[in-house]
Fold this protein.
Amino acid sequence: MKTFYVTTPIYYANTLPHLGHLYTMIVADTIARHKRQQGIETFFLTGTDEHGINIERAAELAGRTPKEQADYVVSYFKKMTAEFRLDTDHGGFDMFMRTSEPFHYEGVSELWRRIAKSKTPKGNEAIYKGHYEGWFCAPCAEYKTEDEYAKPTEAGAPPTCLIHETPLDRVAEDSYFFRLSDYAEALLELYESRPDFVQPESRNNEVKAFVRGGLQDLSVSRLRTSVSWGVPVPDDPEHTMYVWFDALTNYITAIGFGNQERETAVGFEKFWPALHLVGKDILRFHAVYWPAFLMAAGVEQPRGIIAHGMWVDPTGRKMSKTLGNTIDLDVLNRHFPIDAIRYFSLREMVFGQDGRFGYEALIDRTNSDLASGLGNLSSRTLTMISRYSDGRVPSGVISEDKLLLAKRTGVDTDETTVSGFIEHARDQFLQHLEAYAFSKALETAWSVVARVDKMISDAKPWELAKDENQKQTLGAVLYRAAETLRWLCVLLYPVMPTATVEIWTQLGLGNSAGNSQTPAKIDPSSLKWGELAEGTAIGEVKPLFPRIDKSKTLAEISGRDQVQSPASHVQSRAMPDSADRPPAPGSGQHATEADAVAGSPITRETQPAPPMHHATEADAVPGAEGVTNFIDITDFTKVDLRVGEVLTAQRIPKADKLLLLTVDIGEEKPRQILAGIAQYYEPERLLGRKIAVVANLKPRKLRGYESQGMLLAASVGDEGKPVIATFTEDVPNGARLK
Ligand code: MSP
């Protein structure tokens, strides 16, 4: 039996799932369902990438072990896949891979050993030990060369990643290297001999240009003392493997490479090579490093690598948490049918290019293409069959003696005109699908919807029904429409698995349970016109895609967004204007480093409220004993307290108490905030941490740096040790504390 293996990238276990992740799942799921329809035994793999410094840091910030952190994120990915019907229970992925699995450690170690034993095409050792010095971006999990980072604006500060705009880590340590430079020619030969190895073509050209530009050897390990959460290097446990080496290998360890149990359960021998679906941002790892590792290990190359573009917001900006323009999966799930989201994602993004995702466009497409398009074609066809043909699929045949009569109505008596059109559209649809041109494939399918819709409107079945002599003409029109629907169910099943099965059921063709004749199991290329049996009793006709009330839904979504991510309204506020702001603690004069954190002993202007032991009613009365300086609620509301996320944190030369932070409080640009906590907090500990920020404090300069806000911290003990106030639940940046 033929087999097929498709993979998504494995998702970093430091952030919760978002639209980008959902999209790669939808694409892979569509491909897998199409292959399964063709009767090909298909294995669809997804999972999480759980090692490395970034996960380690996220875990530390959250007060979890790295494994607990991964478990936490995995639970959200599993929730997403279940809710969007992408998991095994709904006919989606076959396996959720986790790189923290012991069998993965075994497999990766085996790959490493094989590479370490091998010689490069130039006769050198493929792995060698050396010393690495350079800059590393933890969120990218990638070493950055000079043209890949922004030089610091201040002396002594680290450069920043061009993608994440966060400071890079300086790495200077012994490391194992993979001799990538020896593989350039072999890689170029691979791309030449297999022009469809990387798709689409534009991306293929990009990869070739990168390799032609020259390859540098790749550092593939870190000292355990720097990164402990990773797979140990075989025979040298003082080193852990570079996370991308470990992550890429998941594609083979999941199915049995280096582990007999997995081999028996799935089968590397059976399924490899895979088709890798990736975002264009991680193409280099898949199309350059991974093939080189596999060459070195003597493992067959992947079936191919297809790279999709990125979702950007309706104004063309890249979606990011910092800009607050990401799409909330809960909102999507609440307001839109899953199949509408699938359809929109595949129709709107021209595969390989970036696509714009906006709720308005999603509503428009759902209403026009699904409610008025496919949904309407289905319900009008079925309603007319129930009304004019007693709920049974009529015969499509017009007998010789009725041909003339039929012709007079304008109905084409030659059935092959419409069937020929649809057969041709089917072939085109499949060609596009095989080339991953989802948008074009769907355009083709919708040309069928439009054509048959017009056929019905032109034939006016409601008029034909009035004339007993035109019964066969009416039957032919309805049959053609119903048969078209059957074909559309099969063609569109991989894209819209729920709606197509629903139409199938309404057509009277049974539901998926226990019926081998379901759209899930019919090869679209085997469809034959006319196989819809005359007399089939149709099922109950139900609306498929109710029209979405645009203004109501948009209002509901933006109402929720204000709670979820107040970024939009915060963004529109100007930077605090010093004139109408209350004076800073310490009035901004004689500012000391301790001023930079609320709660430190010097800034504490008020007496702490007494503990509420033995509270009585009297305690609740303003002015009660022990409370010396009440403020009015209006005083309190003058303080604009916001949730912020620490994006960067660094020490300041010659200021041993101060940390320089950039904090995202939901505004267009992150704030720069100085905090007198350097003696108590390592900068790395703060990255990604959610904190409380006084946002309307008059900006002031400390040690030559402007501080544009203040973070809140408890002051503990005699020395006033700061303990930063934080949140135990997930809160959006910019949310107001009140
Ligand atoms: N862990 C690595 C992949 C290792 S594979 C051996 C990784 N993880 S990721 O979670 O950051 O990204 C996973 C996938 O989501 C990537 O293919 C990426 O392109 C995709 N997307 C993330 N944001 C996206 C958009 N805004 N739009 C479309 N896809 C995007 O990279």
